[in-house]
Amino acid sequence: MQATVIHGERDVRLEEVPDPVLSTGGDAIVRVVAACVCGSDLWRYRGVVPVREPQRIGHEFVGVVEEVGPQVRRIRVGDFVVAPFYDCDMTCANCVNGVSSSCLARGSWGATDPMGAFADGGQGQYVRVPHADGSLVATPGQPDAALVPHVLTLADVMGTGHHAALAAGVTAGSTVVVVGDGAVGQCAVLAASRLGARRIVIMSRHADRQSLAREFGATDVVEERGEEGVAIVKDLFDGIGPDAVLECVGTKESMDQATLAARPGGVVGYVGVPNGGAELPIRRLFSTNVGVRGGVAPVRNYVEELLPEVLDGRLRPGLVFDLELPLAEVAEAYAAMDERRAIKALLHP
Amino acid sequence: MQATVIHGERDVRLEEVPDPVLSTGGDAIVRVVAACVCGSDLWRYRGVVPVREPQRIGHEFVGVVEEVGPQVRRIRVGDFVVAPFYDCDMTCANCVNGVSSSCLARGSWGATDPMGAFADGGQGQYVRVPHADGSLVATPGQPDAALVPHVLTLADVMGTGHHAALAAGVTAGSTVVVVGDGAVGQCAVLAASRLGARRIVIMSRHADRQSLAREFGATDVVEERGEEGVAIVKDLFDGIGPDAVLECVGTKESMDQATLAARPGGVVGYVGVPNGGAELPIRRLFSTNVGVRGGVAPVRNYVEELLPEVLDGRLRPGLVFDLELPLAEVAEAYAAMDERRAIKALLHP
Questions:
Q1: pTM over 0.90
Q2: In this complex, do A99 and B265 lie within 8 Å of one another by their Cβ atoms?
Q3: Which secondary-structure segment (H or E) carries B7?
Q4: Is the ipTM of this complex over 0.90?
Q5: Where in chain A is the domain with CATH 3.90.180.10?
Q6: Which CATH code of 3.90.180.10, 3.30.310.50, 3.30.70.1060, 3.40.50.300 fits the domain covering B2-156+298-348?
Q7: pLDDT tens digits, A82-138
Q8: Over the stretch B49-96, which tens digit does the pLDDT of each residue have?
Q9: Looking at chain B from residue 260 to 289, which residues have their Cβ under 8 Å from any Cβ of chain A?
Q10: Is the dihedral of CA A237, A240, A245, A251 positive or negative?
Q11: How many angstroms separate the CA atoms of A346 and B348, rounded?
Q12: Which top CATH class is B157-294?
């Protein structure tokens, strides 16, 4: 089959690789219908995370089940399925607690799973899914092609935005600021809106991204950053700031923006993968009672809640895809996101 | 009148000072019936926080209202009142949000208030309270002498323990670990028990403090610290740790203990005033989805909820006082707490 392999900085290739085979009993082979490129894939692409040897890549995909192992009970051949950006069993204590991203049997796409067999990367024609009954959620019937991008976001960005909002305690009537206007930030706006936030500020300097955020429910746009941005946000909310800030970037600057903007007693829900050496300033957080909660989003736990609204068209998170390409042009998908020509690129195998 | 003045390291004296006088219209003069020494008072006593000039000290007191200013509406002469460890108006946006410790007009005891007049320290015969209608809560009638120590804890330690538990999201059925066996840690155990936690571990190496924690509702004691303590706590809760950890110390070691012990997706509620240069390790928190929430406890916001249970004897947080002295012996009260001969000392003016 063909699958994407990253060889080094700005060197992504579609290559012929071995077809996956069932091997652990509870696994399944999924034919990928749509996959996409994640902001975190760009770390290896940009050389921020070194690539020591060629690696399979991609962790967001939807597709159709082609084969299942003898221990698979819930998932059936022919199901259209969405997988989270990690493999999980949904039976361990952490999965049951709602934190499947800390599954005790967790595996990663494009890597050897804890049982010793390879799980393919998502940017390819087929993927072996180690825990089919845990990781995969089947849609009722086959979704229309137009719905596929929306379903695909449940693999990562929509669930991640939802996690930021839940971690920050967003509920009906909340006031919310979203730091980050990429795909996850946009989904955080949508999630906050869905949860009933009464006012949602997107911090963004790009007209197209401001526009998408408004479509997703943002009520205000703040273009300023740093101290000026914080001061403007405080002013918008009684001079004290919003109840919740959703941090969807991961830099020291964005986290400072978030913790400084939140009102006393407010919460920062963060899903931006922390990079750089910044730690959290505990004395400042203590003096203001600003809480910080978030992390690797347990998106698998959110699929059942979000999927019906995606399928009936109430939630349209797939609008974050502003580029669709055949899998053969995966290198261009990476380049477009790297050069910020696209928010998020969808790939058709 | 007589009031406590700290002159420097291990130099606390009861001295003659000017009687307080009403000055800002909304203020009151309270005759102190009972006061106490806080762990944070020991910072100046131990020289951790330098004392550049003699300062009035003490921020926990209950007493009887002797005089009120012309703008005071709710509090009356003769009321028995409890004050929080700070002065607040209970009308600003932060107070209304439940975060009176960030009151926009907040003042401190033993310091000049934001209106420019002096608010006395709590360890004295009388205190001028700047925002009488905000800061003070009157009991219905005069409480029996036996109840006074319990009411006094609402000025700080009981409300602070309650804040740790709320910040960590403790609710019916929660599993909880409390780091710190001082007065606040003990009150955190009591607060978690009151909120319905099903299992509460106190980390303590002192038999008398273990015993008090058990009286307050602790179900388990762990004497080990560091990595060993974390491993034992994880084992007690399915190998993954408790839902909530209440951090009531404030050192890097205690916070590490807390963030390492919590289960994935769990929350650390922290009220130990951070000291030392330790910041929070965001990458580790991100990878485990452990949240951190807490800070300066808005104890004023909790008085109405806790006071009835204290008055009817259901809650007995005053058991944290294991030393009672006349105000004249305030120096001995500090020495006893400094030398860990007492958990917490109560003073009678």
A1: yes
A2: yes
A3: strand B2-8
A4: yes
A5: 2-156+298-348
A6: 3.90.180.10
A7: 999 999 999 999 999 999 999 999 999 999 988 899 999 999 999 999 999 999 999
A8: 999 999 999 999 999 999 999 999 999 999 999 999 999 999 999 999
A9: 263-265, 267, 270, 273-274, 278-283, 285-289
A10: positive
A11: 73
A12: alpha beta
